[in-house]
Amino acid sequence: MQLSEQEIIRREKLQALRELNINPYPADLFPVNHTSKQVKENFSEGKKVIVAGRLMSVRDQGKAAFAELQDSEGRIQLYFNRDVICPEDDKTMYNQVFRKLTDLGDFIGIEGETFLTKVGAKCIRVDKFTFLSKTLRPLPLPKTDEEGHVFDAFVDPELRYRMRYVDLVVNPQVKEVFIKRTKLFNAMRTFFNNAGYMEVETPVLQAIPGGAAARPFITHHNSLDIPLYMRIANELYLKRLIVGGFDGVYEFSKNFRNEGMDRTHNPEFTAMEIYVAYKDYNWMMEFTENLLEYCAYEVNKTTETTFGEHTVNFKAPYARVTMTDAIKQFTGFDITGKTEAELFEAAKSMGIEVDETMGKGKLIDEIFGAKCEGNFIQPTFITDYPKEMSPLCKSHRDNPDLTERFELMVCGKEIANAYSELNDPIDQRERFENQMKLAEKGDDEANGIIDEDFLRALEFGMPPTSGLGIGMDRLMMFLTNNASIQEVLFFPQMKPEKKQLDLSEDEKLIVSLLKTENNQALSTLKEKSALSGKKWDAAMKGLAKHGLTKVIVDGENKNVVLN
């Protein structure tokens, strides 16, 4: 393993600590009794406190030093005085351990007394400090100049998502997103529990991937010697529980879909599904808007949220528009009674990419997605979907070609999907068989396996039921103004990490400048780097050899870009 100069130095310090009989990774409990937030909020001078966290900055003044300690709730200022820490003749603990062997990022425990500095800052005078964990890699800490400009910020998305543990340390504001995520889940649970519904758990490994039209992940059970599928939805199991006599059940489930990745899709995601007996989709619409109004307020203390350039208000009630009317409004085309061939030609005429594997439902979905979705900014229920799009949904009571289904659109994205659930076992079998035909035709999202056990459950009788599914990650994006799903997941799925290149310091400097602003004039980039001509030429040749940069020539203009 190749180590940087900093990493070698830190390992040398590690050894030096051990030679001083200081354990850099002690097993003992450290008796923390305050957090940084508690110290500041309940401040009184002269209070004895014990805190612990990472050392994040040091201003060394020789016999004394000011420092900052960061814990789970923020930062607190520390004051180290050599003669307080080392009242006897031996000054090793301050001169050697603190000043020479302690690095930024190290975990230390502090015992001390609170006081106000001359400028009125709340601070802890350190009586004793304890090494709790020595860090062997330097943190990518941002630097701020006298004018308040920030340099070397840890902002590269790929690095942030891949090393979320570093992101959370050096960009502590990121924590707020995940604190709000927990608030959202807690609020939703409270809403359901107060309504008398029960949280349950259903299998993640399933013999048949059911409950949604999606491509599953496949694995193998060695002992049973059978293929198993990672859950794409928990719908069919929750309905079994309604058959079994529960009036209302819900689950926050990890679902897995072996499909594309983009700013709004991750192959592993969290969904919430709830099923309530003796209800229909009209009742569920009202329930959903009241639920989201409650959750939005609990997360942000307001029903309004900003998402990009839009201000979205989750206060109930929400607009209701049928899918047929939405398509007619934005395309002028009426899908009512149209054949598969007519829908195919209509989609093509609208410039929508279609293929021969698509049935009526998929074609209608493509038309709606391409021409209508993006127009719905405020929360809007799109209702009454064609039957071909909803194999698990009850036929509409007034029009047998439609189903009693709605999706909730916000800022052009679906965040909730709900049905009056199909409980006719004969009708359900026919719908499953139609899905099999689509799968045989080549639709890789159609379910090509009939869940006979679920049909058997329906034959024992399921009461009228309404179900709702909410994409929790996408809802979280809207409530925290994040356009990327990766920002609301602690550990989003990433491409395999590229082998780290052994770059020179000059090469790293040029790459960092291009990451701040890609596609720069060669002369401007050279000036910013402040490298001599010889060093500049060597660094540029090295980057080109690694395939990291290229120079684009346009007449007399030369620009440098990252590959």
Walk me through this protein's architecture.
By secondary structure, the protein is α+β, with helices and mostly antiparallel strands. The protein contains 18 helices and 23 strands. The strands form 6 sheets. The chain has an 8-stranded mixed β-sheet with strand order 8-12-13-20-19-18-17-16, sandwiched between helices. Strands 1-2-3-5-4 form a 5-stranded mixed barrel. It is globular and about 90 Å long. The model has no long low-confidence stretch (mean pLDDT 94).
Please outline what is shown here.
This protein is an alpha+beta fold and about 575 residues long. Helices cover about 35% and strands about 25% of the residues. Strands 8-12-13-20-19-18-17-16 form an eight-stranded mixed beta sheet, with helices on both faces. Strands 1-2-3-5-4 form a five-stranded mixed barrel. Strands 9-11-10 form a three-stranded antiparallel beta sheet, with no helix packed on it.
Number of strands: 23
Estimate the strand proportion.
15-25%
Low-confidence stretches: none
> Which structural class do the helices and strands define?
alpha+beta
Tell me the radius of gyration: 30 Å
Overall shape: it is globular
Helix content range? 25-40%
Largest pleated sheet: 8 strands, mixed
Give the strand order, joined by hyphens, for the main sheet. 8-12-13-20-19-18-17-16
Instruction: Compute the number of helices.
Output: 18
- Average pLDDT metric: 94
| Termini separation | 26 Å
